[in-house]
Amino acid sequence: MTSTLDLRGEDFLGDPQGVLRGLREADWFAETAMGPAILRYDEVRALLSSWSLRTPGVDFLAAQGITDGPVVEAVRGFLLSADGDDHQRVRRSVGKAFTVRRVEDFRCLAGDLADELVAGLGKRAGQGAGTTRNEGPGSGLGSGPGNGPGGGPGSGVESGGGFDFVEGFAQPFALGALCRFVGIPEDVRREVGEWTADVGLVFGLGVAEHVPRIEAALENLHGFIDDLLDQRRRSPQDDLLSALVDQSLTEAELRSLVITLLSAGHGSVRHQLGNAMAAFLAHPDQWRLLAADPSLAEQAAEEVVRHSPSALLGLPRVVKEDIRVNGTTFAAGSWVLPVTGSANRDAAVYDEPDRLDITVARTAHLTYGGGIHYCLGAALARVELQEALPRLAAAMPDVRADGPAKWLPPNEVGYGPLSLPLRTP
Ligand code: HEM
To answer: Gene3D superfamilies from the entry (predicted)?
Structure first.
């Protein structure tokens, strides 16, 4: 008999990876209220790139009883909802602006932002109760080799202070880096962050209760983005927006794309940084290795995304035509959930899958999805993580948890800590 997975159950919410492990070891899929959750690496990878499946788009809202209105119209226009030729055309146009070169050119700015924020963490920690100031070279935390790849102002977090990692680093870094890359002016970033976080609620399981909030955010974003795109047409800058207005996209496609980029690229990185920090707290030996050797950054950025993904469940898929997997038929019209966070811990593919190990090259993880919808921002997310993590490790190699973290419940896309109290000893 097939096992069941209750995505809203206490067990799953309390220990998602523990529950997934038990189910995955028993079988390659488990039934959920939305359809079968696919749990093992080979099957998840195959299904993500299968032409017989599509993303649910507005069906995801319909399944939650929302069938019309501005939220439905917005989701209908998202790149993630498009299929076939429509998707290919938009993705090709975006690809001409969102190039590997542009992302690599951004690396330095991402590093500078990480340096600034790490320096700010030092001040926060310094304000904590019982702070003892360590002065002079080699006198305490942050005296590790190089103090981060840039050796910039982010060197060293003072001893004895407590701070919240999400508020102090993950959130401002994720939002600041994305806004700089896209070209959102500094004075409106906070509002844009709030609006896009609200729009991101469309990917959750409780959309109905958030409709008024999402509608208000969409209205604000529409006016704001239209104005900004006009400005870029008149006076181009060195940013993604200016490159996007040159592509053959309609006004509606452009606007929708900018909303998608901002919504998809903000919370995902914030949660991923929080998850990374939580994973390293549980594997302090790996954190110290990264602190001592920033050349491990690339591998570290992959391993945390495999081990503790912010997209724990991945994106559901709808079956377009009957498909048979391991002798089981999934009928046209039904849903499947390729659970990438489970596939990434499949012991048939990864040695000691529950262990975070930044020293070995692992099989490619599936957190960024697969097939035509493979994360458009994966290269940017990688650069952000590669620049942030070694700086943080070098500045606070002995950091520890300062009380329990508060977690967002794992929904179908985003998963990560809402707050993560840390302390430097
Ligand atoms: C650690 C950070 C990130 C994670 C874990 C993540 C994860 C994902 C996942 C799971 C998908 C769906 C793939 C599929 O189902 O096959 C996706 C799609 C997408 N992501 Fe990301 N993402 C991240 C960062 C970003 C960033 C920084 C941006 C933009 C700047 C971005 C933009 C997008 C877009 C536009 C899509 C839709 C692509 C399409 O439909 O063709 N993501 N991402």
So the answer is: Cytochrome P450
Sequence-separated (6 or more) residues with CB below 8 Å from residue 34: 7, 63, 316, 335, 337
Closest atom of ligand 1 relative to the 182 alpha carbon: 30
Distance 268 CA to ligand 1 centre (A): 8
Residue 412: the pLDDT is 53
Q: What is the pLDDT of residue 132?
A: 31
CA atoms within a 13 Å half-sphere pointing along the CA-CB vector of 258 = 31
User: Separation of 417 CA from ligand 1 center, angstroms?
Assistant: 19
The binding-site residues of ligand 1, defined as CB within 6 angstroms of any ligand atom, are 48, 79-80, 91, 178, 260-261, 264-265, 268-269, 272, 305, 309-311, 314-315, 367-371, 373-377, 380-381
Q: Are 51 and 313 in contact (CB under 8 A)?
A: no
DSSP lists the bridge partners of residue 4 as 31
296 token code pair: 């491990």
Residue labelled with tokens 């508020």? 167
Distance CA 416, CA 414 (A): 7
Which positions of the chain have pLDDT values less than 50? 128-154
CA 369–ligand 1 middle distance (angstroms): 8
CA atoms of 201 and 397, how far apart (whole Å) = 35
Single pTM value for the model: 0.92
The domains located in the chain, with CATH, are 65-308+372-423 (1.10.630.10)
